[in-house]
Structure formats: structure tokens, C-alpha cells
Amino acid sequence: MALFVLFGSTGDLAQRKLYPALWSMWQKGQLDDTFAMLGVARKAQEDAAFRHQVAQAIGMEDNADPSWASFSQRFFYLSADLTQQASIQALRDRILTLEESFHTQGRRIFYLAIAPALFAPVVQQIRTTGLHQAPSDGFCRVVIEKPFGYDLASATDLNQTLREVFDEPQIYRIDHYLGKEMVQNTTAIRFANGLFEPLWNRHYVDNVQITVAESVGVEDRASYYEKAGALRDMVQNHLLQMLTLIAMEPPAHLQTEEIRDEKVKVLRALRSFDRGRVTREVVRGQYGPGRIGDKEVVGYRQEQGVDPASMTETFVALTFYVDNERWAGVPFYARTGKRLKEQGAQIVVTFRPLAHPLYKPRDANLAENRLVIRIQPIEGIYLEINSKQPGQEERIVPVALDYCQNCDPLVNTPQAYETLILDVLQGDPTRFTRWDEAALSWSLIDTIEEAWQAQTPFYPNYAAGSLGPAEADLLLESGGRRWWPLNTRADVDLFVRSAS
Length: 500
Ligand code: BG6
Prior knowledge:
Helices cover about 35% and strands about 20% of the residues. By secondary structure, it is α/β, with parallel strands linked by helices. 6-O-phosphono-beta-D-glucopyranose (BG6) binds next to loops.
């Protein structure tokens, strides 16, 4: 196992994702007796207070679970100001002492869940401790949370700082979408089924839609989000990662660098965005006040910490083209936004209609075949095909083969962070972003941001609780298409009925 040195141990991410993931891994036996955690942050507190904080994060304040005691005894805390030499020395001493007591044999993971401005100084301080190089029988890995830069230039700077201290195989750039079960499943669905891969190209696929909709607003992250916006926050990483998995060529083997090489080829094949394309094929939006369910919510500009005249986008919809032999001409529509009607993430692959549909003249109901990979909150696979309705009329109706993996109470899908932490422990970077992936996606995003600078949008342009600005629908309607509804059955039924 290993010693985790967590920078940002009092932060929101640690609290919401990392401690619960570690606890779940402990319960499953994925962490053993040689696991220990050193939390590092500025806040002054003792180990006991830190353990209490971890207990709160995992709902274990009453110490009810018998394995909690042995888990919590592995959490230690160091209050440090890493601009001070004394703190750096204290960090080094503490790491070495813990490594000895927990017999971690020089296996250490530096986990950076801190504000981007602190990445470079912390990395430099790690170097000053001299502990960035693992002993010959151990390892030293560094995990970097997003945002990995703000644009290509800042990402390049950050990367240079990292590379001065760590080698690329030591660096694990997190994109937590890659740890989600159904995102991992996209390649399994493609490459483990004779049914889909032969059809997975421009001859049979009409369009692909990738949606990540959130009903939450900016929450308490305004200071970060104001500078980021939806394009940098979601498209540069999560949406483009999903697109590459859908569009990539099959690698010769399921090996880390072979998979990453194929993903990079997709990023290279993405059509670049000039100003004309940005105007025609990129829609941005910002939410105004509205209602989500039965709750009234304020507009983005009224959120705490947000500039009342903010021009930050909270919604993006855009069309990508992968200009290669397999995908030439097939639109990949992507959209994401905050404060939308409902939460849901899915990938929809719509297949072309038959060239000579025997049934079409008799029945206008003939729908396109559609594969929906449901990422969350429902995790599943939904395949829509046409079938004869029982009766003597020969009426054709769309029917769904609908598999929901998290509807089964016996299936306990691991949280994305459990999978990713396990990968780091096992030294498998496949589900992490390689530098060239990050660089290529930033350069694409930069061109959109530059084109946006030249135009002033009119905000707010969608109400909280809606599905985003109307222009996002027009993006598809011009090609005679529609966004496939999000995950509720009621919506899907409605869509099928309205199409008939
Ligand atoms: C993060 C973004 O990367 O992903 C957030 O910074 C967003 O703004 C979050 O809310 C969405 O992740 P999930 O797992 O809740 O879909």
C-alpha cells in the first residue's frame, strides 16, 4: 500500500469525494494495514480534530462501525505554511516517520487537491523535501486535481513545473469522469460487441450527442467558476474525454499508451473552430432566475460571490466534427450547463435510417435506431429499435431494450474516485489525462474563447429550470434533428409519442 500526502485536506473535494472513497475502499479490503494518510493544510489543528473532520465526511461521527477505529488511526495532520523552511522540514520528517511506522516501504502518493495558484509552489516544496524520488523498492506518484490550467499557456507552465520535478509516468491528471462506470463502459460496449463496432462509422451513424446536465448552480465555487465558465470547466475535460472514447479507433491492445494514443488521434482530427464556426456552431448561455422542481432559485448573477454583471457562461452547446475517414461529416453535438431542468449525463448514438425502409410508407412511426449510454444518475444502456405492435394492423412502434445497472440493489457501483485512487495505487494511468491530451484540448478551447472575446452575448438567456437557451435546439434543428431527452422514462415516452 502507500502513504498518501494530501494537500488541501480541509477542502471541499477531500470532504465530499476523497474521504468517502477511501472509507469505501477500506471497507472493501482494497486498502491494507500499510495505508496511511497525512493531511496537509494551513489550518492549525491536531490529528484528533482531523480525524473528527474525516468522520463527519463519511457520516461516522458516532463511531458506530467497528472498522472505523482502525481506519481513523491512519489519519494524521500537519499544519504547514510551505513558504516557510521550518514547515518543509516538518513535512519531510513527518512523512519519513509515518513511512517507517506504517511500513509503506517508500510508496508515496502526493495528492494535490488545492487551488491552481498553489500547484506550482507546492510542487516546488515537495522537491525541496527531496521526497519526490522514491527509494528503489517504492514509488512516488503525484495526483493533480483539475483545473489543469486555465488555457494552453497556463497549462503548459504548470506542466513544465511538474516535469521539472516528476517524470510523466509519475503524474496522474485527474478527470473524474474517466472513473465513472458507464464512461469506462463505452469502450467495453464498443469493443466487446460484434453488434456495434461494424456500424460505428459515418456510413451508419447519423449523429452523436453528449449531454452533461446539472440542476445544481455554482454553489460555493463562484471564485473559481467566474474565471472558468462551462467551456473550461466541463468541455475541455469531461466532454472531450467522452468524445474521444466514442470516436477513437480500436487500439491494438487494451494498454495504457495504446489507448491514449488513439484518443490523441481523435483530438488531432477535431475540426478547429474559426470565428465563423464559433458563431454558427457554439452556443453559450447564462442562467437567470427560475424554478427547479418546486424551488425558486436565483439567477447566476445573483449567486453569492458572482459579479452582478458577470459575463461567465454557465451553459455551452456545440458541434464537433472528427475529420477522419471513419467520422467525416458526422456531427458530434455536446452540451452542458448548470441549473438545468434536471441532472443527467448520457451519450446518444443515433443510427441512420434504412435506405429502403419497407415499413415506412405504411407507418410514419418508424424511428431511428438509437443507443443511449446512460452515465448518471441512471447507469445503463438503452437501445431503441422498431418493432411490430401486437395486433393485426402491422403497426410499427419504437421499443426499448433498457438495461439499468444501478437499479439492481445487489450491484454496488464504485464511485469514480474509488476507481481512480485504486488506479493510482496500482500504478495504472490509463484513466488519467496524458499531457498531449490536455494540451490539444486546451488549444481547441482557446480558439473558442478567443472568438468569444470578439462578441458580447446577451445574458441571462435561459431560465434556471429550463433546458438551456433556445439556440441550443436550433443547433440541431438546422440538421433536422433534436436533442434526445434526459434520463427519465416519462420524458422518453413523451418524446416517442410526440415524434409519432
Ligand atoms: C466538475 C466541475 O469537474 O464536475 C463541476 O468542476 C461539476 O462544476 C462537476 O459540477 C460535475 O461532476 P459530477 O460527477 O457531479 O457529474
